[in-house]
Amino acid sequence: MNAMRWAVLLVVLLAAATIALGVGAVHITPADVVRALAGRADATLSTIIRNVRLPRVVLGVGAGAALSMSGATLQGVLRNPLAEPYLLGVSGGAAVGAVVVTSAGVGAPAVIALAAFVGAAGAIVLVLAIARAAGGKFDPRVLLMAGVVVGAFANAAIMIALANAPGNNVRGALWWMMGSLGDASWRDVTWLLPAVSVLAMLVFVRARDIDALALGEEAAAGLGVDVDRSARSIFLTASLLAAATVAAAGLIGFVGLVVPALARTMGARRARDLLAASALIGGALLVLADAVARTLRAPAELPVGAVTALVGVPFFLVRLGRVR
Amino acid sequence: MSSFRIISFVGALVASFACTSRERDVARADGAAGAAAAGAPLVVDAFGDSVRTTTPATRIASLNPATTELVFALGAGDRLVGRTHWDSYPPEALAVPDLGDGMRPNVERIVAARPDLVLLYASAENRAARDALHRAGIATFTQRIDRIGDFAKAIVDLARAIGDTTLAAAVRDSVLASVASAHSRVQGLPAPKVLWPLWEAPLMAVGKGSFLNDLLEAAGARNIFADLDAPSPNVTFEEAVRRDPDIVLIGASGAGTIRTDPRWRALRAVREGHVVAYDTLIVSRPGVRLGEAANHLAELLHPGLRGK
Hints:
The complex is a heterodimer of chains A (324) and B (308). With 324 residues, chain A is an all-alpha fold. Chain A is 78% helix and 0% strand.
């Protein structure tokens, strides 16, 4: 990837964030957006921009970037372009945690986030334990199988929890599973951004290992990589990236699967480039999708998880057409 | 750590979070001195928030159709600056700006309406909106009326929260008197066994936890699923057949299906033509029309009462 392409991606992300700040259920002119950011608009507009929209946009950038980096990493390590954060039990585990508390009538966002994270982390540990018991060595196929199995078990648990829960609680759980940035607050941002930054850093320093592992275990071992240990810890870090996002925004599908592919069509090859490009594209895509989700049928909202696919698929097809 | 211990640890953690109902004072910022505020009446809502009524709320957003009805009944309808998309009663409510849904409401829209008090439906789903409104410096008051028995307290609490209690007792007494009048009309009449489906597939019926069950009792009937605690439990069709209701009570739109669908002929009540359609505009919300609803049902379930 050349400097020009990086500049384009950066501009796209900034443009997406600017557009997202400007649109919403309440019409606010660009001039008023700037005034509100500078603290010179009237109290109502300032509150809407600074307390409602800005944390939402920042959370969108963080969550989109995290999911995309998680997907890019897992696709490399597992040598499978269909690998995505949610295939490996993370979504299932997180959903079990969130649904158990929401179907019991708990609505406090902090409790749901905590339960989701605990569920996701539990599922990751379980997947690793199953893979270890089944093969001992790091084997992408065994890991994928373990993820699918844990996911299926989680699904069953969710259906049982929801089948007899009161209607309002089912709606709450369903909304959570469809993913939303609607409950974003600065409090979410202040823990998600540092968590994502640290985890992303941990993945970046292993970019060389990811490149080596993508060549196959023997080749990687030949290059001096401790395949088992390295692959396991990268897998764990990438999964935690997804788990943190899920805790903050529920299940947002598609981003982790397609954004890395999109980055590849733009010429990102080495893991370092792929991760950085995925983060920029993912942040922009999620923020744009969220802007669409909250304006298309305003004041009602659409599930952002569905809109990411609606917005992302055409993009992907166009890129695919150009590459062919 | 065994999985059981992990589960109980998480359970305890969640419980400890859930129990810290915030007693945060969300008094409307009116610049009143602390001494004056301390003496003002305090109302605690369904989320555990306290609202101090130092001055009456002047700009109210009501995001629960049942509450909107009550606000109008309390004579404060002219202070409403927002309602939900689903509000339809009283007709004057339609002139109030529509702010969208009452469940997971659009916070941006609410803030733009510049309310000093937001009335929310007390569902777990609305906790995030309540948090967001508090962060924006707007007071909230959350309520839900599940049973007729909740109504008396709810109307008085609401009146105190909006800072206008003049009409509260009168509204409360007239609604409860109207429910009682329905009940006295059916005294001594045989009570039919009623199945009240709220949804046909999967079958969900009125249970004990709903005000609709209370309305049935007030109207002199017995709900065949009054033993189930939930407001709208899922029940099996087989069990409904086994309990053999005398009457199937249903909203006008669903009556046609039940009368013509061969499956429903398994019920004696349907075969004998005892499918009774009620007016869903009258029997809809646990609000000021509870008495009207009880009388409407009493007349439907006891045809001899009509015109008396």
